[in-house]
Structure formats: structure tokens, C-alpha cells
């Protein structure tokens, strides 16, 4: 595990979404609903992004 400051630095650098839950080392058992919600949110984001033009698809000249 990274120290909290390192985790926060990486989150900001990746411009990641953060979801915090009171969990132990097995979140799929202690907060199953939270895990499911994160997976469903990721699927919605990926599905939405798949239907939008991406800056990665543009070729640089």
C-alpha cells in the first residue's frame, strides 16, 4: 500500500475518479454494494466514451 500522500498525488496526476468506502482488505465482502456501484459506473463511462469521438482518434499532422 502507498502512503496517503502518494495515493493522492497519483489520483491527481491521472485525473482519476475517487470513491471512498469504509472497507478492510476484502472490499468485495465488506462493501459488496460499493464494489458493484463502481463497476457499473465504470461500464457506463466506457460505454459512453465508446460512442463519443476521442481525441486519441485524431491524427496529428
Quick overview of this protein structure:
This protein is 56% helix and 0% strand.
Structural class comes to mainly alpha
Low-confidence stretches: none
The largest sheet, given as strand count, sense and whether it forms a barrel, is: none
Helix content: 55-70%
Transmembrane segments: 21-40
Keywords: Membrane, Transmembrane, Transmembrane helix
Detailed description of the structure:
The protein has helices at residues 4-14, 27-30, 32-50. It has a domain at 19-53. With 61 residues, it is mainly α. The mean pLDDT is 84. It is built from three helices and no strands.
Features:
mainly alpha, 0% strand, 56% helix, 61 residues
Layout of helices and strands:
Elements: H1 4-14, H2 27-30, H3 32-50
Amino acid at each position: 500500500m502507498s502512503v496517503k500522500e502518494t495515493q493522492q498525488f497519483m489520483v491527481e496526476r491521472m485525473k482519476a475518479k475517487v470513491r471512498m468506502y469504509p472497507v478492510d482488505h476484502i472490499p468485495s465482502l465488506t462493501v459488496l454494494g460499493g464494489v458493484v456501484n463502481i463497476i457499473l459506473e465504470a461500464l457506463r463511462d466506457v460505454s459512453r466514451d465508446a460512442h463519443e469521438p476521442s481525441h486519441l482518434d485524431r491524427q496529428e499532422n
